[in-house]
Design goal:
The protein is mostly helical. It contains four helices and no strands. It is elongated.
Length: 136
């Protein structure tokens, strides 16, 4: 299969949007962590251990999502450079690695969504218990 220099360039908009979404997730998590930190200092308690563990895992997953996303775009750039210099086989192989890095990033993103959903379900469970106590 022959690829042109423009083929790896097709990934740039997709990866850029992915990195923007990952950054937004990171900002939301960091804001939540700061809020929890502020609340724990005010109330001097550590009742949210499950939530803290969940947030630590989400931060770690988000870091790896971003690493593999950036690696994907770097490999795309190297692929384009190899194709530009006439190293077609090398350019194709690097482009393939770029696609693998993007897939890994997306898989980690799916895992992070599952972990995030678990955290939201913990919150909903707590709210549900409080509502039951208030009614009964």
């Amino acid at each position: 299969m022959e690829i042109e220099i423009s083929t790896p360039a097709l990934l740039f908009p997709a990866v850029s949007l992915l990195l923007l979404a990952y950054t937004n997730r990171f900002l939301a998590i960091s804001q939540l962590i700061r809020l929890l930190n502020h609340q724990s200092k005010e109330h001097e308690s550590c009742e949210q251990t499950a939530q803290i563990d969940n947030l630590k895992l989400r931060v770690e997953l988000t870091k790896w999502m971003q690493i593999f996303g950036v690696l994907s775009i770097l490999l795309c750039t190297f692929s384009m450079f190899g194709l530009f210099l006439g190293y077609l086989d090398l350019g194709k192989k690097i482009f393939g690695l770029s696609l693998v890095a993007m897939c890994v990033s997306l898989i980690i993103s799916l895992i992070e969504v599952a972990v995030s959903t678990k955290a939201l379900n913990l919150e909903l469970g707590d709210m549900h218990q409080k509502c039951k106590k208030n009614k009964g």
